[in-house]
Amino acid sequence: MMPLRWLHYSLRLPPSLPDFLGGATANRVQWAPIGTAVAAVACKMSRPMFRAFATLLVACGLAVLTHWENQRLDRVPAFLNSGQKALRVIQALRSLNLHPAPGSMILLRGWPYRSDPFSSNGWNTAFIASLVYNDHSLRIYHEGTNQLTQQEIAKMDYMISGG
């Protein structure tokens, strides 16, 4: 068994942490015993067990950090709103009751996702339309995302306006 003095040296802790910090009861002081306990347990583990433990510890730390950042940047409501927009597009396309012929060309005009910060182009709308119609032979274009000439627009079989 290793002496406790070596443990303090390996963690680079002074012999008396509260004295070093001037008697302050900062958050660091409260977490120091946990770090000491983790180091003591790590010294008694086999090398493969330590690697698994360290990997688990890093993964948990990353999960906590990601959770904090998502809360700080308020990302969760934005993701949920993005899902609501996708649901509105699906419902709008289904309400048309359109059954395009195989091999048709479809132009989507004025659909959402143009100002969505998580998808700043119309590819999501075109992808949703391809999933709704479930026909790989359809060629679906989004106005503003695809650069189309007036001749190409005139050749479209269907033009669907939305938004």
Structure explained in plain terms:
The protein is mainly α. It has 2 domains: 4-73, no CATH class; 76-161, no CATH class. Helix content is 57%, strand content 8%. It is built from 7 helices and 3 strands. The protein has helices at 4-10, 17-20, 27-44, 47-73, 75-95, 123-133, 150-154, and strands spanning 105-109, 139-142, 158-161. Strands 2-1-3 form a 3-stranded parallel beta sheet, with helices on one face. Helix 6 (123-133) links the parallel strand 1 and strand 2 (139-142). Helix 5 packs across helix 6 (123-133). Mean pLDDT is 75; it is low at 1-14, 20-25 and 114-118.
Task: Summarize this structure as a short list of keywords or feature phrases.
163 residues; 2 domains; three-stranded parallel β-sheet; elongated; disordered N terminus; 7 helices
* Average residue pLDDT: 75
Per DSSP, the total helix count is 7
Strand content: 5-15%
C-alpha geometry: elongated
Report, as a whole number of angstroms, the end-to-end distance. Answer: 70 Å
- Which structural class do the helices and strands define? mainly alpha
Which residues sit in consecutive blocks of at least 5 with pLDDT less than 50?
A: 1-14, 20-25, 114-118
Order of helices and strands: HHHHHEHEHE
* Total number of beta strands: 3
Main sheet summary: 3 strands, parallel
Round the Cα radius of gyration to an integer and report it. 29 Å
Strand order of the largest sheet: 2-1-3
Number of domains: 2
